[in-house]
Amino acid sequence: MRARTFTESGRRAQIVRAAIAVIAEAGYAKASFSRIAKQAGLSSTGMISYHFAGKDDLLKACVTEIEEITGAFMQPRIDAAVGHVAQLRAFVEANVELVGEHATELRALIDLVKNAGSRSDAVDGRLALFEEHFRTGQAAGVFGAFDARITALALTTGLDAVVATAAANVPEPAELTRIGRELADLYVRATAPESTGGPE
Amino acid sequence: MRARTFTESGRRAQIVRAAIAVIAEAGYAKASFSRIAKQAGLSSTGMISYHFAGKDDLLKACVTEIEEITGAFMQPRIDAAVGHVAQLRAFVEANVELVGEHATELRALIDLVKNAGSRSDAVDGRLALFEEHFRTGQAAGVFGAFDARITALALTTGLDAVVATAAANVPEPAELTRIGRELADLYVRATAPESTGGPE
Amino acid sequence: MRARTFTESGRRAQIVRAAIAVIAEAGYAKASFSRIAKQAGLSSTGMISYHFAGKDDLLKACVTEIEEITGAFMQPRIDAAVGHVAQLRAFVEANVELVGEHATELRALIDLVKNAGSRSDAVDGRLALFEEHFRTGQAAGVFGAFDARITALALTTGLDAVVATAAANVPEPAELTRIGRELADLYVRATAPESTGGPE
Amino acid sequence: MRARTFTESGRRAQIVRAAIAVIAEAGYAKASFSRIAKQAGLSSTGMISYHFAGKDDLLKACVTEIEEITGAFMQPRIDAAVGHVAQLRAFVEANVELVGEHATELRALIDLVKNAGSRSDAVDGRLALFEEHFRTGQAAGVFGAFDARITALALTTGLDAVVATAAANVPEPAELTRIGRELADLYVRATAPESTGGPE
DNA sequence: TATGAATGAGACTTCATTCAT
DNA sequence: CATGAATGAAGTCTCATTCAT
């Protein structure tokens, strides 16, 4: 059985899932109404226009759907972590771990966000979240004195790339766990306070 | 007169430059032969098909052209640096600095790579370069024991995002320099050996 | 509550009134079942198809509805006039006066008749009425020796144009009265006997 | 050989003529790119989009084309007339006479103007021309004291209706001449000064 | 080389109508 | 009666590509 979030139901949800599948497999550029209709088992593209105001509307619904799925997976794990560093690590590891369960959705989401143009509240939100997280952590003394915005940008996009690569060719669960730990280590190192062990 | 690399000449080069301009300004999705022809001052798209085997061929030529331009700027700066860490820093700083001189080309390149699908020799090459650089640096003891491939992937894409953001809204030269230094610092921290930092 | 003629009732009448409103506001070409359903507060176009055999059927019902409304207004005024000339004048003045009370319906009617194609019993009827009126008036010596058909055609359509113009931007009642009088004067002049003004 | 005005040439003109034919025969509403392409012997509607910026552009070109044709016929006849009354008569008669040579174009033009929405410079121009003609004629004492605007509106649209009717079922040339004379008589009567018929 | 014309496919959207519930 | 879904056709428009000149 497919996962289904509470915001969608019936044909509308079916179309959204078909769109996600097409975007994940064929890419954003090839995700035409024709392909999506075929994937959804619909006889015409008119049905999509019937359920959605336009292509943007459908794509937004896809993003919303995926974010609900990913949020349901990641949020508890992030909330379970205590402290700024642990939460950073939890976010990274949860995101990579997610590849094991929702590779298709993640591939679609990343492609959607890449080609979002302007309408990317989601990415902007995450970026702002990271930036704010860094700032409060810096105030608490658990992060170094780096530029919060630049760092947030570099680390979130780097995370996306690792996730995308993993999603394109899903590895074993153990390897996935290792990748998440590696990346989290990297980010923890990158954001650690200067203090003692600073070489060079 | 615009810089002209040795691989392109005459109309072909003119079309490539027009394509780069269109991609940078209107985005990959809107970069049709029509727009490119108009930008190039051509009265028909036929000339583009005459000079290029197809759209892919033209886009590849764009990537090649941009890489030569960026390479000419970055390579000397990288070569001037001595040691693995310094070269990593030089690469990052040069890439950010490049925004000041070739924002258009960088915007186009990033859009091109985003929508590359599979055929991204350039990105794969840079990724392999970073990975190899990390491995030899690790052997030399100047980098930590991280996973070279994952780290290369995260850091190169993070760098791209920072460059793209800067290119989309080019800041003052001084600010550009600061951003490069910040990012380089971040990456050096992220890749540094754990405890007794061994210099080189 | 809106006026309701005896031929229509319930949902059917509601749809007809919605259609009239849409045609008047958005124009014949934009009067799709979707728009009409929305205007009628219906959630689906299915109800329209249920109540009407097809689009033509609905449009005919609109014409009928409007004609009853306009007839109820104009007929008493025409009947009150005595003599061919006075009746001509009464028709013209009543029609223009009608703009003050049923501009929406008149705008819709004119648009409907314009795009009638062939099935315009209403217009044909009025044309025949005028023609016959002119003929009997000529026999009575109160009209000149003009061609009744050509004159009827030119005057009825000219009247429509004046009404349409007034309905599109409804003027003050006094101005409306003046326009009606002006136009009636014009038509009386145009149809008067040549030399010795024939009384009646 | 078909008439061809100097503003159009080649395929563009061919498409315009096809569009005019389709509008005249099938009506404005049915004049889709598909029908026009078929009429023009084109294999696809893309060709129309290639030559015209959009449907509006094509329709405007049709109007322009027809106006050149009609203008070439009518203008000399109007210019040959001396005096306001004679020119009014010349305009009416020339317009009706035109049915004998360009019925198709006239039917198309009338349908185009009817569905013009806003972009009807042509009709507005003619209306203004009539209105101004009436005003100057009134100042010269050859027209009565009627409202120039209302009269212009009623007479021009009445003329259109007579022309459209004739064009839909073209009568013999002699009958055409008679219709023109009848209508001109009507209009001259309608606009004549009240009492002492002052000629010119 | 260069042009302009032509093609055929495919894009998104809207429409009137039908039908099961 | 009423709804919402579904259909299939047709609409305008853009695209990459080809070809004769």
From TrEMBL, chains A, B, C, D:
Alphabetized GO MF terms: DNA-binding transcription factor activity; transcription cis-regulatory region binding
SUPFAM superfamilies reported for this sequence: Homeodomain-like, Tetracyclin repressor-like, C-terminal domain
Protein name, per record: DNA-binding transcriptional regulator, AcrR family
Pfam family, one: TetR_N
InterPro entries: Homeodomain-like_sf, HTH-type_TetR-like_transc_reg, HTH_TetR, Tet_transcr_reg_TetR-rel_C_sf
Domain HTH tetR-type: 15-62
Keyword DNA-binding: yes
Listed PANTHER family: HTH-TYPE TRANSCRIPTIONAL REGULATOR PKSA, HTH-TYPE TRANSCRIPTIONAL REGULATOR RUTR
Organism of this sequence: Amycolatopsis tolypomycina
UniProt keyword annotations, A-Z: DNA-binding
Signal peptide: none
Keyword Ribonucleoprotein appears in the UniProt entry: no
